[in-house]
Specification:
Distance between the termini: 23 Å
Order of helices and strands: HEHEHEHHEHEEEEEEEEH
Number of helices: 7
Radius of gyration: 17 Å
Structural class: alpha/beta
Shape: globular
Bound molecules: glutamine
Length: 211
Amino acid sequence: KQKTAYELMPSLVGSEMCIRDRVGVLALQGAFARHLQVLGGLGAATTEVRTTADLLEVDALVLPGGESTTMSMLLDSSGLHDAVADRITNGMPVLGTCAGMILLARHVADGRPDQRSFAAIEIDVLRNGYGRQVDSFEADLEVTGLDKPFHGVFIRAPVVEWVGDGVEVLGTVDGRPVLCRQGAVVVASFHPEMSGDGRIHRRFLDTAFAA
Ligand code: GLN
């Protein structure tokens, strides 16, 4: 008789995650390593996604920070753009942080003319929108559903200039959305992987892999 996942891994009892669930982190460029660390620390099985074959292994995907223009080019040349777009259309949960948020947006202002985005969430963003003076900053964010503030690290972050009716704004800075969700798509203009606080990843996994 085949053993159940829980018999093989009793530590999973009580967790909403199941042993078959695997989360990928797009690893073409940028700040993907810390995401893998945080997700691994939460007990998730992880895969670095560089090819369409890697993508087949995963049930959810993180698009990290980095340079959205470069990532867009690499998504095209690797054939991953269409494959990821297809998975998103079919409901794959996605978390996009900073450049990852830009890649998931409906419209990108101040991007490269040939830069593409997945339009997976009804938000419009302005790249590097916080300006030169405040290139990078940190802020303690009140996040809907979290009982204590989340320390947000912003690095040449995009500004969310517009959100559609279907988008839930979960956190703001100076009245501007910085954490948003629409269905299975979660985007942050900051770097939640850099705070030593796994709560945003935890919630993403719990929602993504809820039974
Ligand atoms: N400014 C970068 C871009 O436009 C994003 C910066 C980041 O991901 N930290 O892609």
